[in-house]
Amino acid sequence: MKIVESIMTKNPCYTAGRKITVKGLMLHSVGCSQPSAAVFIGLWNRESYGYSCVHGIIDANDGTVYQTLPWDHRGWHAGGSANDTHIGVEMCEPDCIQYGAGGSFTCRNMDRAKEMVKRTYEAAVELFAKLCKEYGLDPMADGVIVSHAEGYMRGIASGHGDPEHLWNGLGMGYTMDAFRKAVKAAMGDEPAKADYTIGMRELRKGCRGEDVRALQILLSGRGYSCGIGGIDGDFGNVTESALKRYQADHIAACVAVDGVAGKRTMRNLIGISH
């Protein structure tokens, strides 16, 4: 996951300087066919724009997260009391959908749309895992991670249906319950680290087992997604790609970008110096 700091210093939510005690995270989607985060940043980063300011926007073209407010600043994303308690993150939407009345939409390129939505979903999972760790939040606890639609049902947000309306309309099969579980998995767990014994075997594509699952937890916990449902103990193409990205970013320690989790790579992932 790539995070770019792009604080909207002209937006009234920033200049007001109000802080919140972060108690949760709210997931949104923008509700229009615009995949570029830069468009929203350009629109909202104005002194005269007092209608919206979220903490982060996820670009649908490449999955980059743009941090647009300090995480503990009060934003205006929920249209309700969640503005005082929750960090708000928007996911951009595909440019191949067209909205009609009542939040319904048509799609002229289903494959492209699903690819973009999958990209923003996976980036949101990784971002929320990072924020849960940073603020000591339990993603499975009641009311900690909610969608805008769920916020409305709880009486803490305005009457929106996002992002479920987009997921359902495209037949993605995503739910907020699954999202929360994915965040929990992406946070990693210490027992998985302890269970892995360095040097037992090299892990590569085609391997299966608890040691592969431990590798996937380590990668996901460090922001290298193994895909939706990817913590499954099966070393496939997505896990190999995540491992190669990690190795490329830590080439001095891992030495090679070969998609093989050998002793040097595993020691670096676990945090043991050579």
How is this structure best described in words?
- The two termini are 26 Å apart.
- A six-stranded mixed sheet has the order 1-4-3-5-2-8, with helices on both faces.
- It folds into two domains: 3-186, Peptidoglycan recognition protein-like (Lysozyme-like), CATH 3.40.80.10; 190-270, PGBD-like superfamily/PGBD (Muramoyl-pentapeptide Carboxypeptidase, domain 1), CATH 1.10.101.10.
- Strand 3 (56-58) and strand 4 form a beta hairpin.
- It has helices spanning 12-16, 37-44, 110-135, 148-154, 164-169, 176-186, 190-195, 210-221, 237-249, 251-254, 263-270, and strands at 3-5, 24-29, 56-58, 65-67, 86-91, 97-99, 105-107, 145-147.
- Helix 3 packs across helix 6.
- It contains eleven helices and eight strands.
- By secondary structure, the protein is α/β, with parallel strands linked by helices.
Essential attributes:
two-stranded antiparallel sheet; 274 residues; Muramoyl-pentapeptide Carboxypeptidase, domain 1; Lysozyme-like; 6-stranded mixed beta sheet; alpha/beta
Which value, in Å, is the CA radius of gyration? 19 Å
Q: What is the second-level CATH architecture of the largest domain?
A: 3-Layer(aba) Sandwich
Mean pLDDT across all amino acids: 89
Give me the number of helical elements: 11
| Total DSSP E strands | 8
How does the major sheet shape up? 6 strands, mixed
The low-confidence parts are: 190-199
Helix content: 25-40%
Q: What fraction of the residues are assigned to beta strands by DSSP?
A: 5-15%
CATH level 4 superfamily of the largest domain:
Peptidoglycan recognition protein-like
Count of domain modules: 2
CATH class of the largest domain reads Alpha Beta
The CATH topology of the largest domain is Lysozyme-like
Class from secondary-structure proportions? alpha/beta
Q: N-to-C terminal Cα separation, in Å?
A: 26 Å
Instruction: Give the strand line-up of the largest sheet.
Output: 1-4-3-5-2-8
Gross morphology is globular
